[in-house]
Specification:
The chain is α/β, with parallel strands linked by helices. It has a nine-stranded mixed sheet, with helices on both faces. Strands 12-11-10-13-14-15 form a six-stranded parallel sheet, sandwiched between helices. It is 49% helix and 12% strand. It folds into three domains: 133 residues, no CATH class; 200 residues, 3-Layer(aba) Sandwich (Rossmann fold), CATH 3.40.50.2000; 181 residues, 3-Layer(aba) Sandwich (Rossmann fold). The longest helix is centred in the first third of the chain and has 29 residues.
C-alpha cells in the first residue's frame, strides 16, 4: 500500500509544504482548545495533545480526559469506562466521572433526574443525559411509524459512474476493519471503471495527530478528501458544519451517488448533502453501533435503557430515509429488513480480499514471531481488535485443556483492545503460552495469518455477533488457514463449506473441535478447501455485483 498526495510535490519542497499545512491548521487546533479552555483549562491542553501528540501535559488528568473524550467520540465505550478510575482519582471531590459511567452504562433517566449543580463537567453530563432521555422518548415512536420514502431514481448518464463514500476515518492514520474495507471497496470500484472517491469526517485526521494533513491524498489508486475547516465548530454545531462542508465538496465533485457508511452521523450528513443537491444516497451498514454499545454494557439488560433506544432510533431513521442500503451479510440484511426497510432496497456486499491476498509467501516467519514456541504442535488464535464479544477467553481455556491432554498448543493473539490485558492474565493463570505482539502494520498481517495453524472465531452469543460478519475469517481462509467458529448465523456465512463449527460455547466443545487440527494433513485439507472457496466466491471482483445491483436500483 502506498500513500501519496494527489499531486506529489518535488522532494525539495515536501517538508516546506508539510510545515505550511501545519501552520494553516493551527487556528483549527487552537479553536478547539479555546472552546475547552472556557470550560476547563486542562481541556485546552488535552485538545492540543490530541492534535499534536508530541506535546506533554503537566496535568495527568488532561491526558486521561482527552483519551476519555476520544474514546466516547469513537464509540469505544469500553475504553472510556476503563479511564474513569483515573479521572476519579485525579479529582475525588468531583462526581462527574461516576455520572459519566452511569450514563454510558445506560442509566440515562437516573442521571437526568439529578439537579444541575456542582462542577461544570457534572452539569454537562446531566444535560447530556436529559437530552438523550428526551430524544429517546420523543423520537422512537415517530421514527418507528415513519413511512419509507420512495427511492430517488437518477437519470441515465454516459459518464462513468461516480461515487463519493462518506466515512469516519481512513488509512493510513487509522487501521481497522472498517478502514481496510473502505480502501478495498473504493479500489475495486475504480478497477471496475467507476470513479470512486472517499471523504472523511470533519476535522479528521488533524485531531488524530496529523496536524500537517493535506486536504487531499491518495492511497494506492483511491483519492481521499478531508474536510478541514478554519475553526472547530462547537459540539452542538458540529453536525451542521459537517453537512455544510460535505455539501460544498459534493457540489464541486457532482457524484452520481453519495454513499455513507456506519455510523448514523455519516448517514444523516450524506442524506443532507444528497437531498440538497438532488443526488441519490446509499448507506452501508457495517455494524449496529447500538448493539456494540449494549454488548459492552450488560447485553439484553442494556437494551432496555433509553441510551440504547436513542442510538437505535437514530440508526433506524437513517436506514428508512436513504434510497438504498448495502450491508455485509444475509444476517445483517434480514435485520435491516426487520427495521422496516423494503427488502428490494437492501443489497448484500460481503467482505472480500484482494486477489493478491491469495498469493503464497515463503513461510519463514514462524521462528521470528513465535520465538521459543516455534516448535508447537498447534498454533491457534486470532488477528482482531480485542473486544469482549470476540470470546477469545474460550480459545485460551480450550488451549489449556488440550495442553492437559499432552498437546503442545500455543495461542497467538494479534491486535489491541480493552480485553487484551485480561486475556494475557488468563493465559498466565492457565499456564498457556501466549504470543501477543499488539497491533501490527498492514504489510505484516499476512505473516501473522500464515503463522497460525487455525484461526479461532469463538464469538459469544449476542444480537451483535448473530448479525454482524467479520473480515478476519475471510482473510485467514484466503491465506489457506482453516477457521473454527461459533455456531452463529453471521459466523457460519463467512466460512467455507465443510468448516468446523464448535458444538457449543464451552471450552470443552472448543477443545474437541480443535483437537483434529493437530494432525498436519487434516488441517492442510481444510486450509486448501477454505482458500479455494475464497478464490471462487470472496474476492473483491466477485462481490462487486452487490454494489452494481444497488446502484442499478438508483437508475445507473
Amino acid at each position: 500500500m502506498t500513500v501519496e498526495p494527489s499531486n506529489p510535490p518535488p522532494r525539495a519542497f515536501s517538508r516546506v509544504r508539510a510545515l505550511s499545512r501545519a501552520v494553516r491548521h493551527l487556528p483549527l487546533v487552537a479553536s478547539g482548545a479555546w472552546q475547552r479552555f472556557a470550560e476547563d483549562p486542562r481541556r485546552a491542553v488535552m485538545a492540543l495533545q490530541r492534535a499534536v501528540p508530541t506535546l506533554r501535559s503537566p496535568w495527568p488528568a488532561a491526558n486521561a480526559q482527552g483519551r476519555f473524550d476520544q474514546a466516547v467520540a469513537g464509540d469505544d465505550y469500553a475504553g472510556a469506562m476503563a479511564l474513569l478510575p483515573t479521572l476519579t482519582a485525579q479529582n475525588p471531590a468531583d462526581d462527574s466521572a461516576q455520572l459519566a459511567a452511569a450514563l454510558l452504562s445506560g442509566q440515562v433517566n437516573e442521571v437526568a433526574a439529578l439537579p444541575r449543580r456542582g462542577s461544570r463537567r457534572r452539569m454537562r453530563v446531566i444535560t447530556s443525559a436529559r437530552r438523550v432521555s428526551r430524544l429517546a422518548r420523543a423520537a422512537v415512536p415517530t421514527w418507528t411509524a415513519a413511512a419509507s420514502p420512495a427511492p430517488t431514481v437518477a437519470a441515465k448518464t454516459d459518464q462513468p459512474l461516480s461515487i463519493l463514500h462518506v466515512v469516519t476515518n481512513s488509512l493510513p492514520r487509522v487501521q481497522a476493519g472498517s478502514t481496510i474495507r473502505t480502501q478495498q471497496v473504493a479500489a475495486s470500484q475504480r478497477a471496475c471503471g467507476w470513479d470512486a472517491q472517499v471523504v472523511t469526517r470533519l476535522g479528521f485526521p488533524v485531531f488524530h495527530g496529523d496536524i500537517a494533513a493535506d486536504n487531499h491524498h491518495t492511497v494506492d489508486t483511491v483519492p481521499y478528501h478531508r474536510l478541514l475547516p478554519t475553526h472547530l465548530p462547537a459540539s452542538d454545531r458540529f453536525e451542521k458544519a459537517y453537512e455544510k462542508h460535505l455539501t460544498q465538496l459534493a457540489r464541486r465533485l457532482r457524484p452520481h451517488v453519495i454513499h455513507g457508511a456506519s455510523d448514523a452521523m455519516n448517514g444523516r450528513t450524506a442524506l443532507a448533502a444528497g437531498r440538497a443537491l438532488q443526488i441519490p444516497v446509499a448507506y452501508e451498514v457495517r455494524t449496529f453501533f447500538e448493539h456494540t454499545w449494549a454488548a459492552g454494557h450488560g447485553g439484553k439488560q442494556a437494551e432496555e435503557t433509553d441510551m440504547f433506544r436513542w442510538l437505535r432510533a437514530q440508526h433506524t431513521q437513517v436506514l428508512r430515509s436513504v434510497d438504498v442500503v448495502t450491508t455485509l451479510g444475509e444476517s445483517m440484511r434480514d435485520h435491516v429488513v426487520q427495521r422496516g426497510v423494503p427488502p428490494e432496497r437492501v443489497f448484500v456486499v460481503p467482505n472480500g480480499v484482494d486477489i493478491d491476498f491469495l498469493t503464497a509467501f515463503p513461510s519463514e516467519n514462524r521462528v521470528s514471531i513465535l520465538g521459543p514456541y516455534a516448535q508447537a504442535d498447534l498454533v491457534i488464535g486470532s488477528v482482531t481488535t480485542m473486544y469482549a464479544y470476540e470470546g477469545l477467553a474460550t480459545t485460551i481455556d480450550a488451549a489449556a485443556i488440550l495442553r492437559g491432554q499432552g498437546l503442545n498448543v500455543v495461542v497467538l493473539l494479534v491486535g489491541e483492545g480493552p480485553e487484551l490485558a485480561r486475556w494475557r492474565e488468563l493465559a498466565r493463570e492457565r499456564h498457556v503460552p501466549l504470543v501477543s505482539p499488539g497491533r501490527v502494520g498492514l504489510d505484516q498481517v499476512r505473516q501473522y495469518f500464515d503463522t497460525l495453524d487455525v484461526l479461532t472465531l469463538p464469538r459469544i452469543d449476542s444480537d451483535l455477533t448473530r448479525w454482524v460478519t467479520a473480515l478476519k475469517p475471510v482473510q485467514a481462509q484466503a491465506r489457506g488457514v482453516p477457521v473454527v467458529g461459533s455456531n452463529l448465523p453471521a459466523v457460519r456465512e463467512t466460512l467455507a463449506p465443510g468448516s468446523t463449527i464448535a458444538g457449543d460455547f464451552s471450552a470443552e466443545a472448543w477443545a474437541e473441535a480443535l483437537a483434529g487440527y493437530a494432525e498436519p494433513e487434516f488441517r492442510r485439507r481444510h486450509g486448501v478447501a477454505a482458500k479455494e472457496w475464497v478464490a471462487a466466491c470472496r474476492t473483491w471482483p466477485q462481490v462487486m455485483s452487490g454494489y452494481a445491483n444497488a446502484y442499478a436500483a438508483l437508475g445507473y
